[in-house]
């Protein structure tokens, strides 16, 4: 029986880092190095390994993701049943969502990395890489868009969050849970996620500047006001279901008069509200002042979505509708150009 072809590309990250002495570790291993270090990987799929970059996750940017999408699309056209992207875990929850927004193929795009270096006493990179390849080669993974595979768990890109600085089980999917698990060399799906329509990839050029501002105790609004004057859009991470101090309500009004302002929650789980609270600075008040509720999308993913929509030059009404559909994760159509609908 022939094995499926899986294309694998490395962008760097902890999984590729080595070092000696007291200087710390840094990215150095290639994609071929990673593949050769995983027992049994050659039996799981025919692999085509490519090194796209050797960068820490913290240094990745939009240009890297565009290059990654181009490589992945070409790999699929060349016959790959799925693709695996290896990168640093610092930004996986953001980069995976960017890839998911613009990945217009049924073949799965799986993102993985490692929490421990190859030189650690118990490196998790080889196991994560093995599970990612298994997931990319699995027919049941088709149509799910971008996935994140860490610690033998499979996450939807738009749900996953990094919740721990260093533990192997650092990645979680709050609220709706993981999609599945890798057990004895097979992916076992027990949860479902249907895709929203894919957004067109914006033309190359300067990417919109979107600030992420988190409100805090005794916030005077100065940072929010500065961000509104210097950026093309703002994601405001408010208290609880989407609240700010009453003294900031006017600052929010001034900001929404200049740029789109998306209202998310700083808590990391749950949805922003729409009509529960009515005090000054509440979600009802801020929405009335022009803020766009993010729903279940956290602030980091909201920033990715807002940046992509601004790069496409869509009008404010379209931005509002996209967040209403993608943040709700509820049955109903979105307004992306490619058409289609989702139910969860």
TrEMBL record:
<dbReference type="InterPro" id="IPR006034">
    <property type="entry name" value="Asparaginase/glutaminase-like"/>
</dbReference>
<protein>
    <submittedName>
        <fullName>Asparaginase</fullName>
    </submittedName>
</protein>
<dbReference type="InterPro" id="IPR036152">
    <property type="entry name" value="Asp/glu_Ase-like_sf"/>
</dbReference>
<dbReference type="InterPro" id="IPR040919">
    <property type="entry name" value="Asparaginase_C"/>
</dbReference>
<dbReference type="Pfam" id="PF17763">
    <property type="entry name" value="Asparaginase_C"/>
</dbReference>
<dbReference type="GO" id="GO:0006528">
    <property type="term" value="P:asparagine metabolic process"/>
</dbReference>
<feature type="domain" description="L-asparaginase N-terminal">
    <location>
        <begin position="6"/>
        <end position="191"/>
    </location>
</feature>
<dbReference type="InterPro" id="IPR004550">
    <property type="entry name" value="AsnASE_II"/>
</dbReference>
<dbReference type="GO" id="GO:0004067">
    <property type="term" value="F:asparaginase activity"/>
</dbReference>
<dbReference type="Pfam" id="PF00710">
    <property type="entry name" value="Asparaginase"/>
</dbReference>
<dbReference type="InterPro" id="IPR027473">
    <property type="entry name" value="L-asparaginase_C"/>
</dbReference>
<keyword id="KW-0378">Hydrolase</keyword>
<comment type="similarity">
    <text>Belongs to the asparaginase 1 family.</text>
</comment>
<dbReference type="InterPro" id="IPR037152">
    <property type="entry name" value="L-asparaginase_N_sf"/>
</dbReference>
<dbReference type="InterPro" id="IPR027474">
    <property type="entry name" value="L-asparaginase_N"/>
</dbReference>
<feature type="active site" description="O-isoaspartyl threonine intermediate">
    <location>
        <position position="14"/>
    </location>
</feature>
<feature type="domain" description="Asparaginase/glutaminase C-terminal">
    <location>
        <begin position="209"/>
        <end position="319"/>
    </location>
</feature>
């Amino acid at each position: 029986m022939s094995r499926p072809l899986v294309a694998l590309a490395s962008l760097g990250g902890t999984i590729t880092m080595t070092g000696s002495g007291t200087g710390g570790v840094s990215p150095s291993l290639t994609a071929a190095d990673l593949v050769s270090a995983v027992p049994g990987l050659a039996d799981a799929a025919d692999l085509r390994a490519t090194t796209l970059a050797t960068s820490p996750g913290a240094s990745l940017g939009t240009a890297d993701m565009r290059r990654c999408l181009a490589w992945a699309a070409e790999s699929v056209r060349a016959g790959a049943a799925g693709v695996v992207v290896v990168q640093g875990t610092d930004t996986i929850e953001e980069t995976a969502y960017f890839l998911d927004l613009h990945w217009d193929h049924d073949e799965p795009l799986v993102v993985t990395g490692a929490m421990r270096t190859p030189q650690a006493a118990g490196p998790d990179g080889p196991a994560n890489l093995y599970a990612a390849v298994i997931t990319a080669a699995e027919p049941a993974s088709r149509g799910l868009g971008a996935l994140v595979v860490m610690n033998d768990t499979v996450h939807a890109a738009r749900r996953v969050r990094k919740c721990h600085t260093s533990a192997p089980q650092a990645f979680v999917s709050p609220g709706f849970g993981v999609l599945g698990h890798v057990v004895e060399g097979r992916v076992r799906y027990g949860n479902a996620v249907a895709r929203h329509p894919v957004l067109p990839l914006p033309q190359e050029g300067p990417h919109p500047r979107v600030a992420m501002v988190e409100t805090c105790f005794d916030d005077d609004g100065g940072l929010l006001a500065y961000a509104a004057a210097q950026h093309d859009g703002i994601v405001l991470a408010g208290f609880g279901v989407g609240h700010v101090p009453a003294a900031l309500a006017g600052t929010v009004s001034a900001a929404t008069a200049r740029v789109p302002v998306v209202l998310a929650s700083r808590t990391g789980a749950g949805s922003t509200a729409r009509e529960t609270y009515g005090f000054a600075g509440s979600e009802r008040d801020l929405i009335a002042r022009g803020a766009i509720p993010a729903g279940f999308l956290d602030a980091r993913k909201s920033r990715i979505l807002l940046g992509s929509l601004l790069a496409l030059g869509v009008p404010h009404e379209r931005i509002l509708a996209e967040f209403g559909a993608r943040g709700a994760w509820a049955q109903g159509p979105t307004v992306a150009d490619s058409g289609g609908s989702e139910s969860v």
